[in-house]
Amino acid sequence: MTATPDLDSFRLASPDAQLASPDLLRSVFRQHAAGVAVITAQGGSGPVGFTATSLSSVSAEPPIVSFGIGVGASSWPTISESDHVGIHILGEHQQELAATFARSGADRFGAPTRWRKGPEGVPVLDGVLAWLVCRVAARVPAGDHRIVLAEVVLGDPSGVGRPLLYHQGRFNGLRD
């Protein structure tokens, strides 16, 4: 068993170290390049969607993915009640689409967004690298967010292009 280092001593040796805070977490994750996805669902008053960088593969058998959503997000009320969601992997040519779905108050499904009603009524975006329609299996409380676990029902991985990434607070393309 190893001893836990004294925080004050460690901070003296590493003067840039900070105690846990929302700002620290944001600063650290600005250093983490993440793929960009848009999550969609159909609500009683129309489709909703948001840009997410928290998408993860959880299980291959059965195929399950996860994503996080803030409980204060405008899409949360619909996501909290939806049985199915759409997950869309964006290409580097879709920076404006990512920005639209990230912007508060934007008409996310108006022109120029191209989409169609997919299986289970889920909005499916056109022109993405890949998409999935998933059945919501669980919503797990995690601080001011919920982690949504969703089992894949149907998908299409045949889009063409390179992935869109989010790094240092900006959307970027993947470079060799």
Record the SSE blueprint.
Elements: H1 7-13, H2 22-30, E1 34-35, E2 37-43, E3 46-52, E4 56-60, E5 63-70, H3 76-79, E6 84-89, H4 95-102, E7 115-117, E8 123-125, E9 130-142, E10 145-156, E11 164-167, E12 170-173
Antiparallel strand pairs: 1-11, 2-3, 2-6, 4-5, 5-10, 6-9, 7-8, 9-10, 11-12
How would you write the strand order of the largest sheet? 3-2-6-9-10-5-4
Number of strands: 12
CATH superfamily: Electron Transport, Fmn-binding Protein, Chain A
Do you know the CATH architecture?
Answer: Roll
Keywords: Oxidoreductase
Pfam family, one: Flavin_Reduct
Protein name: Flavin-dependent reductase
GO molecular function: FMN binding; riboflavin reductase (NADPH) activity
Explain what this protein looks like in three dimensions.
By secondary structure, this protein is α+β, with helices and mostly antiparallel strands. The protein has one domain (34-173): Pnp Oxidase, Chain A (Roll), CATH 2.30.110.10. The protein has helices at residues 7-13, 22-30, 76-79, 95-102; strands at 34-35, 37-43, 46-52, 56-60, 63-70, 84-89, 115-117, 123-125, 130-142, 145-156, 164-167, 170-173. The strands form three sheets. It has a seven-stranded antiparallel beta sheet with strand order 3-2-6-9-10-5-4. It has a three-stranded antiparallel beta sheet with strand order 1-11-12, covered by helices on one side. β2 and β3 form a beta hairpin. The model has no long low-confidence stretch (mean pLDDT 93). GO terms for molecular function: FMN binding; riboflavin reductase (NADPH) activity. Residues 29-173 form the Flavin reductase like domain. Keywords: Oxidoreductase.
